[in-house]
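Deliverable D4.2, example record:
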Amino acid sequence: MQPAPAPAPAPRDPGLQPERTRLAWRRTTLSCAVTAGLAARQAVHQGLTPLSIVATALVALVWLGFLTAAHHRIRALDAARPPTISPRAAALAAGCTVALAAFGAAELF
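Output generated by the structure prediction step:
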């Protein structure tokens, strides 16, 4: 006597979870863009020095890195079964977010 076959998995019903995740990525991207914009504004307002130009370029580079990671993740969420985020992409997104938060805090001082 053979064991009964395992039941087929139920079709996935993601509900609104992918949309909430997509919106969270977009909100974070917007907050990163605001931080980068405020950093550039602050650098111009205080006078363009070599240090402020380098800092603004660094902020822009970090923002572009986060924007790239977020764009790839948002596009991946369009799939019926989106793949999990890779550890590299997660580390990039987290690192960029922390760096932009640090840059934003540094602008206050």
